[in-house]
TrEMBL record:
Belongs to the aldehyde dehydrogenase family. Keywords: Metal-binding, NAD, Oxidation, Oxidoreductase, Potassium. Residues 18-474 form the Aldehyde dehydrogenase domain. This is Betaine-aldehyde dehydrogenase. It comes from Salipiger thiooxidans. NCBIfam families: BADH, PRK13252.1.
Length: 485
């Protein structure tokens, strides 16, 4: 039974849907048609208060459960999510416009992976015993308390679960604010967690724009803030969190390099470049949007890329045959069109695409620019749309230096048949999530996150545990206390 698009309330607080129509209207638009499919409201201060009170109460109970019991709830939620994958994927497609072909394999399933992984890990999150001769110290891994998650619009289900799963496994509660552009999916995550046995108030969803996020970040009851968003928002949220000395995870933007050497398998390199630029219509944070191609294979690479792009099936994202859908919103489409105009005006060679597609909704053609130079706007700024910049290079040293000449450091990739070179180059690229002869894989077992302006902290993997828990150390004296007086 597919989900109703209009939820029973805008927010999910204390285990139930709630509404307060005094909050600003949030229209939900299906980006493939421009039609309004639901109307929600931003959280009022009263809703934010209810969510924080509920989270505080639930966290105190939740932290008293054994980690194994907590893990069982997460594992059950993962199972429910897998059983409902089709309906959740359809909802994700309505929320974001991403093709069902993608959402069926990359969204609720990735979210379920996180719930399953951290559910399984919960019982093994222990402290240690540190012998000191007669005395000893033991450590206890403790929850942080009430945590806030704030999401971007490109992966609404995945982002909610990449944050909630480790947070809850560690004994925290969460108030999650989705992006105002994609408010629907996180509500289903909340419903499923309740169904799986999470206590009321453990995972709450409140809708709204920046002001609602800001009210959560600055609340003294909040111990940690995890943001997925742009660098400018990250700067503001990090600074606000610092005022309250809160823990943070910042998953921010990027302008990641992909280096293709002369000896690369050309079809694999082209495949990586397609995945790293056109999947989700280019709206992926870790995309390799600066494709440095060694001069010896540049023309062959461009020819093969152009050929393969003809295979993109552009159309209704609800049709499983469609492999390339619309941008998330008219606003995002307009921003990307502005970058395409700048690319052409600054002298880049348009190889293919560049135009809006003549149909309802916010569709742009997959676009490739060649002869891009490092100083061009399209080579420096994050575009977050289907625009690939191809730059050429002569030597390994030159490619590494130019790849690193950016304020970002989210991801990086290298394509070469020489594995020694692959490891040598990756070792010198300043980025958090790297790939050799592949691009954009994000399994839950691998740490995900950036360096430099792309962020701090890591999601997924055992590394995430460090960011959702804190250590208490306990010194135990076995003999008498010797005091000077
Ligand atoms: N590194 C990652 O894992 C990752 C993943 C996905 C997207 N992103 C990045 O996200 C960006 C695109 O998403 P976006 O346009 O939604 O980003 P955005 O920065 O505009 O918004 C992100 C979220 O922050 C909220 N927000 C805005 N101002 C706030 C404030 N002052 N206080 C608290 N919350 C506030 C927004 O309402 C939204 O929910 C891109 O830069 C992309 O690279 C990063
Ligand atoms: O958008 C960024 C997060 C991500 C990368 N790959 C899948 N999800």
């Amino acid at each position: 039974m597919p989900y109703e698009l209009q939820p029973d309330g805008s927010h999910y607080v204390n285990g139930a849907y709630v509404e307060d129509t005094a909050g600003a209207e949030i229209p939900v638009i299906f980006s493939a048609t421009g039609e309004r499919i639901a109307t929600l409201h931003a959280a009022t201060p009263a809703i934010v208060e209810q969510a924080l009170v509920a989270a505080e109460k639930a966290q105190a109970e939740w932290a008293k459960l054994s980690p194994r019991e907590r893990g069982r709830v997460l594992t059950r939620a993962a199972q429910i999510m897998r059983e409902r994958n089709h309906d959740l994927s359809v909802l994700e497609t309505y929320d974001t416009g991403k093709p069902l072909q993608e959402t069926l394999v990359a969204d609720a399933s990735s979210a379920a992976d996180a719930l399953e992984y951290f559910g399984g890990l919960a019982a093994s999150l222990t402290g240690e015993h540190i012998p000191l001769g007669e005395d000893w110290v033991y450590t206890i891994r403790e929850p942080l308390g009430v945590c806030v998650g704030i999401g971007a619009w490109n992966y609404p289900t995945q982002i909610a679960c990449w944050k909630a799963a480790p947070a809850l496994a560690c004994g925290n509660a969460m108030v999650f604010k989705p992006s105002e552009a994609t408010p629907l999916c996180a509500l289903k995550v909340a419903e499923i967690l309740t169904e799986a046995g999470a206590p009321a108030g453990l995972f709450n969803v409140v809708q709204g724009m920046g002001e609602v996020g800001s009210a959560l970040v600055t609340d003294p009851r909040v111990a940690k803030v995890s943001l997925t968003g742009s660098v400018p928002t990250g700067r503001r949220v990090y600074a606000a969190a610092a005022e309250g000395m809160k823990h943070v995870t910042m998953e921010l933007g990027g302008k990641s390099p992909m280096l293709v050497f002369d000896d690369a398998d050309i079809d694999n390199a082209v495949g990586g470049a397609i995945l790293g630029n056109f999947y989700s219509s280019g709206q992926v944070c870790s995309n390799g949007t600066r494709v440095f191609v060694q001069k010896g294979i540049k023309e062959a690479f461009l020819a093969r890329l152009t050929e393969r792009l003809k295979g993109a099936v552009i159309g209704d994202p609800l049709d499983e045959a469609t492999s390339f859908g619309p941008m998330v919103s008219e606003r995002q489409m307009t921003i990307v069109q502005g970058f395409i105009e700048k690319g052409a005006a600054e002298g880049a060679r348009l190889v293919t695409g560049g135009k809006r597609i003549d149909r309802d909704g916010w569709y742009l053609e997959p676009t490739v620019f060649a002869d891009v130079t490092d100083d061009m706007t399209i080579a420096r700024e994050e575009i977050f749309g289907p625009v690939m910049s191809v730059l050429d290079f002569d030597t390994e040293e030159e490619a590494i230096a130019r790849a690193n000449a950016t304020e970002y450091g989210l991801a990086a990739g290298v394509f070469t048949r020489d594995l020694a070179r692959g490891h040598r180059v990756i070792g010198q690229l300043r980025a958090g999530s790297c790939f050799i002869n592949s691009y954009n894989d994000a399994p839950v077992e691998a740490p995900f996150g950036g360096v430099k302006m792309s962020g701090v902290g890591r999601e997924n993997s055992k590394a995430a545990i460090e960011h959702w828990s804190q250590m208490k150390s306990v010194y135990v004296r076995m003999g008498d206390v010797e005091a000077p007086f």
